[in-house]
Design brief:
The chain is α+β, with helices and mostly antiparallel strands and 228 residues long. 64% of the residues lie in helices and 10% in strands. Helix 1 packs antiparallel against helix 5, helix 4 crosses helix 9 and helix 5 packs antiparallel against helix 7.
Length: 228
């Protein structure tokens, strides 16, 4: 193969390998911080900041005082990571942690069904198979028992670069579709409180705050009755 063919084959291979490495590489470790280093710096500014946060929260969410603390409660948000829902999940997580101090909010990926996951693993194999046929089909087909390549091979070979680019882009689109679940499921202490798969929409911040607030209030009532 000449340099152009090596470039056309090597570029998709490099992109695929980079996707695999980024998929399985561990997240970077958080830098260690010394809590005593900035102790005096934050101590002098903490009362005004607390007062400002209390005033701001009382203006934006008047029912925060009635919801109480979230200590001992766990909220799990299962979202479709391939659908770019992480930003919405992080926004909901920050809102819940602000409104219910001490609450544990867990973010996790909601995977698609097993058949779709299996098909998504086969898409890269088909991609590289088609690219290999486009580049070296004249040597591959005789080894497969074909004396003459089929007519569609010559159609693809006539526009080699366009055929390879179309194969790569179409395969990535199909793989992204198969890996998407479209889910945004919210659980409070193991109980489903909102499901995008059922409602076909995202929850509003105030709506989700009220849903979680009811569960937190019920858990506090149950705990109070238990200990009494």
């Amino acid at each position: 193969m000449d340099r152009a063919q090596l470039l056309l084959v090597g570029l998709p291979l490099f992109l695929f390998c980079s996707d695999i490495v980024s998929l399985f590489s561990p997240p970077p470790a958080k830098p260690a911080t010394n809590p005593h280093h900035h102790h005096h710096h934050h101590q002098s500014n903490s009362p005004p900041l607390i007062q400002q946060q209390q005033q701001r929260s009382s203006l934006e969410f008047p029912s925060q005082k009635s919801s109480g603390s979230g200590v001992g409660n766990t909220v799990k948000i299962d979202f479709c990571s391939s659908c770019s829902y992480r930003g919405s999940a992080v926004t909901m997580k920050n809102m819940l942690e602000t409104q219910f101090p001490g609450i544990n909010v867990v973010l996790a990926n909601y995977p698609p069904p097993f058949p779709k996951r299996l098909l998504s693993k086969l898409v890269p194999i088909v991609q590289f198979g088609m690219i290999g046929i486009i580049v070296a089909g004249e040597q591959i087909f005789p080894r497969l028992g074909f004396a003459v390549p089929p007519p569609w091979y010559y159609s693809l070979r006539a526009n080699k670069f366009g055929s390879m680019a179309s194969t790569w882009l179409l395969g990535n689109f199909i793989q992204s579709f198969l890996q998407s679940s479209g889910a945004f499921e919210v659980y409070s202490n193991g109980e489903l409180v909102f499901s995008k798969l059922k409602e076909n929409r995202f929850p509003g911040e105030i709506e989700l705050k009220d849903l979680i607030g009811r569960r937190v209030a019920n858990s506090r009532v149950i705990d109070g009755e238990f200990w009494s």
